[in-house]
Design brief:
Radius of gyration of chain C: 24 Å
Number of domains of chain A: 1
Distance between the termini of chain A: 35 Å
Largest sheet of chain A: none
Helix content of chain A: over 70%
Strand content of chain A: under 5%
Order of helices and strands of chain C: HHEHHEHHHHHHHHHHHHHHHHHEEHH
Strand order of the largest sheet of chain C: 1-2
Number of strands of chain A: 0
Helix content of chain C: over 70%
Oligomer: heterotrimer
Number of helices of chain A: 11
Chain lengths: 286, 145, 632
């Protein structure tokens, strides 16, 4: 099979399967969380019911522009995943994800709502917190394999984890922010009664909110794909680690209270400096 | 087919309740009742919510607030008045600053009696509300985005 | 071609003198517009000629008479500035001036006749890039200044109207910049180098109030330090290597050129406002906005990075890039990271832009310091994108400032509502500065790729720096794009020259983003190949992806600009149920009606200037001292 064919197939599988996988994972997350709290929890398909319901609701807006920004967020999250699952340049994928987040932040800003505004500001701080580690992860993958291309990295002979153990741990740390889990779910939360209402998403409803939710599924699958790459040569282990990483985040989520943004920024930069930088230095002087 | 009954999201407002009904509302979320089994979430934001749960009687101070919250909910939406005060004003009905139950400000779909209303009654009220929600969705047909 | 080249240097100078005598109003408008167009056209023609040649062209123009003329002009200018320094009681500046003058005279008397440059002028693809930036963007800024300066004096009645002198300096500046980039003889280059220093000194001091005078002398002093280093480099180069041409540096024995190259790099760092010398560029904000645009985008600081980019192949060659190149890159990296951080703490739009300029120049210096073929590509791309987007941003901020009476980012809430075109200019500029898939990000991408190969440790600076860059741009972008209820459109109050310039620059910013593959193929790649004998080009798939992303963004802007029919599903913001009937107001806890007002985070405690600036000055100073120490 030539490269274009694998690229197209990769993208098609991602487009079709990612929301299913992402939604199921979210459903499993809610069940596991409920069990950890001594509850029974919702059905596995609950996230899909939620999204379908939102699709049937009225889409109320504060201004005419916000829908367009949300669409931008949605489209660019998908493009991010397509770049990676199409075997493209990971650095480019990271930049596309940044663009997606900027769209979401601008959408929140445009509403001129105090709660959304604080959510947007915190989201920015989150970006500043995780971005260095994400870039260093990709840089580390390049140093270990000699390529930024996801296809080349996936085909690399050695197990990436063996070269990048610290970067892997650092990436797990910032994954908590990216999955919007406690203690770093400061910009918006899946749980009720946050001090800033629903943060970033306060002013969005109906189909806009549904799009944001689906985009999160796509985004989660993309992030888990990055985890997969660390163990790509042994698919069984890779899938197991990916799932373990996801449920580790769920576990962390249920065991932590929300921290202030100062802690999010300080701790993730400290982790990046210690784990990310040390790994890069080790690779550089190998 | 409507998915509204499968994922009812609530916004809960304490008008001037003594907190008795509020505690019972929150009790529904606890492991004993665990309403999330039915997809119920206490979402805390009118723009995301389908069901407006009000406790306590309406007074001059919070009339506008109730009206605003109701207006900011997306269609279709349902209001559930919980407890004696919310349904009729209860023992505060004759107070100089109380205008009565929630239905003096916004249309109420389900009345849940009790002082305080028991969690079972509250869940029952919300389930009744789901039927109203579905009926409203059917009436309006598809809602434009 | 030689005539055209001389024309590009001498014509702006001639126009400058003409403008000194032209009364303001219609006459000046004609002269400025026509000569701006002529300069732009000439630089485009020159670019076409050089590009079609495909190889650097050298010109033996000039002779003993020209050398003497340049010497005389240099001494004359030096004396004038010295006298001004004495009159303003700036004795340090005076001392630096005198030291420079003495060195120049000594050089002329003692050494000038011992070496001879084969060709005094030359032009290659890098010069072409620079001349296009100077010729097109510089001219546009001059054109913009026509309307702006009139308004400026309207708003600042305390400032004496010396706009004849202003335009004189602006055009002289353009001429000097062209001289600087075409000079192959380093003595000539040094002359133009000093002229740009003086020009910026006069422009920064235009307002003549205490602050303007102080900041103009700060700029003068710091740049004179660079000038002295340059002068010293000339001495060492002549004495050690008997060479005086830029093009000869590659062929000289490493030991002989090490010190001069280090000194030249030092000069480049001062002029490009790298830490610890950054304060002069921040101080330059007191000048009218076109001056900032000029200093930041097409002239002055670009001269600094131009020199470092020119030296970048030499860094690798003299000592394997181990000392000079590495330390220059480290200074750039520290500057990039710290100034990006400090930009977060700023509310003044021009100051944010200033910090971002210094940061981006830092990134260019990193690229040039390490200087493999990928990074050289990235450096030149950064220069191009930065020049266009930054001039656009400065000019839009200047335009908005006159209309809203403030250049605080906090007062730009909902700018897109009442100044849609100016805001569009800002948005395009901001997107071009940091956002994928546009402008700077393409080069930042190449920077990261190049750095991983060459020196992975430096990628750490870039990773952190890029992350903080996001924050200060996004919060500004968000402020502009806030949608408020029913704002009054005041766009019509923007003067025509200004809106025209903004439109042209916006189109250019977008155009360069779309056309970058072509620019790379026809302009950069021949230059990179000429210098490094290696080809750098991005994977075609990546280019395609970038273009798809650009197309997507363009498609998305259509519904933003034309929102279509009236929306039926409007609801006001959620204000905990306390909304009032009047929009954007709520019933406060103390019973009063409150208007929503939103302020951004500035994180003063973490990224404040007072914390980071001394840190940056100290660390870069140490780096520079180590660099010079190792070399000596």
């Amino acid at each position: 099979m030539d490269v274009t064919a694998t690229t197209v197939i990769g993208i098609l599988i991602y487009l079709a399967a990612a929301p299913v996988v992402g939604g199921l994972l979210t459903g499993a997350d809610r069940i596991v969380s409920a069990r950890m709290q001594g509850r029974y929890g919702p059905p596995l398909l609950q996230p899909f019911y939620d999204v379908l319901k939102l699709w049937q609701k009225e889409n109320i807006v504060v201004n005419r522009q916000q829908k367009v920004y949300i669409l931008g967020f949605f489209v660019f999250v998908i493009i991010t995943g397509c770049i990676m699952f199409g075997g493209g340049d990971l650095l480019l994928a990271v930049f596309a994800l940044t663009l997606a987040s900027v769209f979401l932040i601008v959408a929140a800003y445009s509403t001129f709502s105090p709660y959304a505004h604080i959510g947007a500001e915190r989201e920015m701080i989150q970006m500043v917190s995780y971005e260095p580690m994400v870039i260093l992860t990709v840089v580390g993958m390049y140093m270990a394999t000699g390529s930024f291309s996801a296809a080349d990295i996936a085909r690399h002979d050695g197990m990436l984890f063996l070269h990048l153990p610290f970067i892997f741990l650092g990436f797990l740390f910032i994954l908590t922010i990216k999955f919007r889990k406690s203690p770093f779910d400061i910009s918006m939360s899946h749980h009720a009664h946050q001090e800033i209402v629903r943060g970033l998403t306060t002013e969005f409803s109906g189909r806009d909110l549904a799009l944001i939710e689906i985009a999160h599924w796509y985004e989660n699958v993309f992030l888990l794909g990055l985890i997969y790459l660390f163990f790509a040569p042994v698919p069984v282990v890779a899938v197991a680690v990916t799932l373990a990483a996801y449920f580790l985040e769920v576990f962390i989520d249920n065991n932590n209270a929300r921290l202030k943004w100062q802690h999010a920024l300080g701790s993730s930069w400290a982790v990046t400096l210690v784990l990310g930088v040390s790994n890069v230095v080790l690779l550089a002087f190998r | 087919m409507s998915f509204l009954p499968k994922s009812p999201w609530l916004v809960h407002y304490d008008a001037s309740s003594c907190n008795g009904c509020d505690i019972e509302v929150l009790a529904c979320l606890t492991p004993v009742y665990d309403v999330e089994r039915f997809g119920v979430l206490n979402i805390g934001n009118p723009k995301h919510a389908d069901i407006f749960v009000v406790t306590g009687s309406v007074n001059e101070q919070n009339k506008a607030v109730i009206k605003n919250i109701y207006d900011q909910m997306a269609e279709p939406k349902v209001v559930v008045a919980i407890g004696a005060c919310a349904t009729s004003g209860g023992v505060f009905r004759e107070c100089y600053n109380v205008s009565g139950g929630v239905d003096t400000v916004i249309p109420v779909d389900v009345y849940v009696p009790g002082c305080a209303a028991r969690p079972e009654a509250i869940i029952d009220g919300v389930v009744l509300g789901l039927g109203v929600l579905e009926a409203k969705y059917g009436e309006k047909g598809k809602v434009a985005s | 071609m030689q005539a055209l080249l001389l024309f590009l240097i001498l014509f702006p100078a001639a126009v400058a003198f003409l403008l000194l005598a032209t009364p303001k109003g219609r006459a000046r408008q004609t002269v400025v517009s026509v000569s701006a167009a002529v300069i732009a056209a000439a630089s485009i023609i020159l670019a076409a000629l050089v590009l079609s040649r495909g190889a650097p062209v050298y010109f033996a123009v000039g002779g003993h008479a020209a050398d003497l003329l340049i010497f005389a002009a240099e001494v004359a200018l030096g004396v004038i500035v010295t006298v001004i320094s004495i009159r303003r009681k700036q004795y340090l500046a005076m001392a630096l001036m005198l030291a420079g003058l003495i060195m120049t005279v000594v050089y002329e008397v003692w050494l000038a006749n011992t070496v001879h440059a084969e060709s005094n002028l030359f032009a290659d693809n890098l010069s072409v890039v620079m001349t296009l930036i100077i010729g097109v963007i510089g001219s546009l800024i001059a054109f913009f200044a026509l309307g702006y300066m009139e308004e400026y004096h309207h708003h600042h009645e305390d400032v004496p109207d010396r706009s004849n002198f202003f335009f004189f300096i602006v055009f002289a500046f353009l001429g000097a910049m062209n001289g600087l980039i075409f000079a192959n003889n380093l003595v000539w280059l040094f002359f133009f180098w000093e002229v740009t220093t003086f020009c910026s000194f006069f422009l920064i001091g235009y307002g003549r109030d205490a602050l303007a005078v102080r900041n103009s002398f700060l700029a003068l002093k710091l740049n004179l330090c660079g000038g002295l280093a340059f002068s010293a480099a000339l001495f060492f180069l002549t004495l050690n290597a008997h060479a005086i041409s830029l093009s000869e540096l590659h062929d000289l024995p490493g030991g002989a050129v090490l010190l001069p190259v280090a000194l030249l790099a030092f000069a480049g760092l001062t002029k490009s406002a790298q830490m610890p010398f950054s304060s002069w560029l921040l101080g330059a904000m007191v000048a009218p906005t076109p001056v900032s645009a000029l200093l930041h985008s097409s002239t002055m600081v670009k001269a600094g990075v131009y020199l470092v980019i020119r030296l970048s192949p030499v860094f690798a060659y003299v000592d394997g890039g181990k000392t000079v190149g590495l330390f220059v890159a480290l200074v750039g990296a520290v500057t990039f990271l710290l100034t990006s951080c400090m930009a977060i703490s700023q509310n003044d739009a021009k100051r944010v832009l200033a910090y971002s300029t210094i940061a981006n120049l830092g990134l260019i210096i990193v690229c040039a310091g390490i200087g493999n073929h990928k990074l050289a590509w990235a450096a030149v791309m950064l220069v191009i994108f930065h020049a266009i987007a930054k001039s656009l941003l400065f000019l839009s901020v200047g335009t908005a400032e006159h209309l809203i009476g403030s250049r605080q980012i906090e007062s730009m809430d909902g700018l897109a509502g009442y100044l849609p075109r100016v805001a569009a200019g800002m948005v395009v500029g901001i997107a071009g500065m940091f956002l994928a898939p546009f402008g700077m990000l393409i080069s930042k991408w190449a920077t990261l790729e190049g750095l991983v190969d060459a020196n992975p440790i430096l990628t750490i600076f870039v990773a952190f720096g890029s992350a903080v860059t996001l924050m200060f741009w996004v919060k500004w972008l968000g402020k502009i794009l806030i949608v408020k209820s029913a704002p009054e459109n005041v766009e019509t109050r923007v003067p025509r020259t200004q809106s025209l310039t903004l439109a042209v620059l916006s189109v250019m910013t977008a155009g360069v983003c779309v056309l970058f593959p072509l620019i790379s193929k026809y302009v950069l790649e021949p230059f990179i190949f000429e210098t490094y004998r290696q080809i750098y080009w991005q994977d075609m798939n990546n280019i395609a992806t970038l273009l798809i992303m650009m197309a997507t963004v363009v498609v998305l802007t259509v519904p933003l600009v034309f929102p279509g029919k009236q929306e039926r599903h409007f609801r006001p913001q959620y204000l905990a149920g306390a909304n009032l009937a009047e929009k954007e107001k709520f019933h406060g806890a103390m019973g009063q009606d409150i208007q929503i007002s939103l302020k951004s985070l500035y994180l003063q405690g973490i990224f404040g200037e007072s914390r980071l600036f001394p840190l940056g000055v100290l660390s870069t100073l140490i780096l520079i001292i180590i660099m010079l120490g190792v070399v000596v």
